[in-house]
Amino acid sequence: MLRGVLGKTFRLVGYTIQYGCIAHCAFEYVGGVLMCSGPSMEPTIQNSDIVFAENLSRHFYGIQRGDIVVAKSPSDPKSSICKRVIGLEGDKILTSSPAGFFKNHSYVPKGHVWLEGDNLQNSADSRYYGPVPYGLITGRIFLKIWPLNDFGFLRDSPNGHRFSDELGK
Amino acid sequence: MEVQLDELPEYFLWTKYLKVTTHGVDPVECGADVQAKEVSRVGLYMYQCSGPSMEPTIQNSDIVFAENLSRHFYGIQRGDIVVAKSPSDPKSSICKRVIGLEGDKILTSSPAGFFKNHSYVPKGHVWLEGDNLQNSADSRYYGPVPYGLITGRIFLKMKLKSHNCKAFDTDEKLQTWALIMDWSYGAFTN
Question: Highest taxon of the source (chain A) (predicted)?
Answer without folding.
Answer: Eukaryota
